[in-house]
Amino acid sequence: MRLTISFFLSLMFLLVACAPEVEYEHEHAAYDFPVEINGQIQILTYDATHDLLGEPDQNIEHVVFVHHGAAQNPTTYFNNMKEARDFAIVDRPELGLDDNTMIISPAMIGRRHVDDNPERYENGLYPYWGSGWRAGADSQTEPPVSIFDMLDAMVLYVADHYPNVKSIVHAGHSAGGQVVSRYSVGTTAYDSLLARDIYPRYIISNPSSFLYLDTRRPDFETGEGFIDYADEVPVVNGDECPQFNNYGYGFDGDLVEYMTRRPVDVMVEEFRERDVFMLQGLEDNDPEGAALDRSCSAMMQGSHRLERGLWYYEYMGELYGPEAYETKFIETVPGVGHDNARMFASEEGKNIIFFIPDILE
Question: What is the pTM of this model?
């Protein structure tokens, strides 16, 4: 059901879209997925219910890619999504989710992972990224590669090697939600999946920011509608914010190389048809929340993550008209804040990840 803002509300540029670097316990994913890009082998690590390079499981019909947050912790996210699937199995045993659903958690590693476990990455074929992985920036390794290229390769490999796959889900929380927000607009794999009769959908959960597709932003003074800043510089907290629409938040400034391969207007128009779900925790509403992007570009989207998600959902209707809500949806989760495990395992999370009736029954 469509929600309105009034019901709920009474780097700067690319890299500012990302939270500051924080020290975390390092997680090293179990599996390797080699990809040849521009004649060079590059290896994406991942955790999963299946070794993709092993014998394909003919029972697999549904694939869930889960994208980790700023802690670059694929194992935690994999375990949390697997637990959500286990809850879904109890709810709907007739769907056979234990046999027909594969979970994959790609790892967007940083330099600190390589330094922490040099034996794991000793052959030098493992790209690593600065904080720009959230927006598809190139790796800090040579030759450079975007995580979006590697995700496309992994997705198409799954589609080619698992002949009974019917649906592929990309679900990302927090920084992983930022990945899905940008990747869902830019990915070139989408049409290839449709051509194989595979249904792709994208779930953006509690990100710090979204990718806006033009220069309109919420009108916070009135609490409804949008202001187009195409011909003026917005002011945020008393300061001008000329970079408000730089890539990551919008499409101005320097785009990452991956996002230059198709004209922006083509990406915007094609995004109209892509099924995207915003999954928002109703308690993720702290303007001082940990790792919340407080740059002026982010503040133009709302004062906290919940507000930003609600406004972005309204923006889809502003941009595309009422028909937007045939492909753009929002689910809010009562009692949950910035917690990926509880978001995925919530009734609302399970419904859109595992229980889309037309696909899974």
Answer: 0.92
Res 3 pLDDT > 80: no
Selection from 175, 92, 181, 171 nearest residue 353 by Cα: 171
Q: Which of 338, 25, 303 is nearest to 173 (CA)?
A: 338
Q: What is the pLDDT of residues 307-324, one digit of tens each?
A: 999 999 999 999 999 999
Residues 288 and 306: their CA atoms lie apart, in Å, by: 13
Q: How confident is the model at residue 38 (pLDDT cuts 50, 70, 90)?
A: confident
Structure-block tokens of residue 163: 């002949």
Residue 26 has pLDDT above 90, yes or no: no
The topology under which CATH files domain 5-360 is Rossmann fold (3.40.50)
The structural domains of the chain, with segments of one domain joined by +, span: 5-360
Question: What would the two tokens of residue 13 be?
Answer: 């540029």
Say if residues 207 and 343 touch (Cβ distance below 8 Å). Answer: no
